[in-house]
From TrEMBL:
Residues 32-128 form the Pyridoxamine 5'-phosphate oxidase N-terminal domain. It comes from Actinacidiphila glaucinigra. The lineage of its organism: Bacteria, Bacillati, Actinomycetota, Actinomycetes, Kitasatosporales. Keywords: Oxidoreductase. Gene3D superfamilies: Electron Transport, Fmn-binding Protein, Chain A. This is Pyridoxamine 5'-phosphate oxidase. SUPFAM superfamilies: FMN-binding split barrel. PANTHER family: HEME OXYGENASE HI_0854-RELATED, PYRIDOXAMINE 5'-PHOSPHATE OXIDASE-RELATED FMN-BINDING.
Amino acid sequence: MAEEKEPEPELDARYSSAGATPTTWHDARGHLAGAEIYWLTTVRPDGRPHVTPLIGVWLDDALHFCTGADERKAGNLDRNPRVVLTTGNNALGEGLDIVLEGRAARVRSDKQLRRIAEAYESKYGSEWHFDVGDQVFVGGGHEALVYEVEPTTAFAYARGTTYSQTRWLF
């Protein structure tokens, strides 16, 4: 398994409490790995944003998700692979929100697809079991394309007794 990247955090003092420290990538990566729901933003053909919740797994320095080939997000990704993925909570006084920017790339290797399928089932349970067939996930009588997003930029917004905004460039 590849070693996880450790980019340098940059604290933005304009949006951080006095004395705040940057969130570590280790902590942000833990939140990305542990989140159950992510929000994916893609770009429609007419330039409008398209946002949808989905499940996914963090594996090998990338967030992975799947979608049907006929779904809006798959069509959007065919035309423009740039995405934003977010996760966090909606409480003002506590929590950590993560925003990850990158490019979605189709995963086509059966070996990699099997690893991702195992990660889905390990994280979400047997209800989310996928078989691998011809460069796609197969489950429940449907096929799903699988994408990975390696971050190009990421942000963390920490709330609680101390607020902070951290940025990482990859």
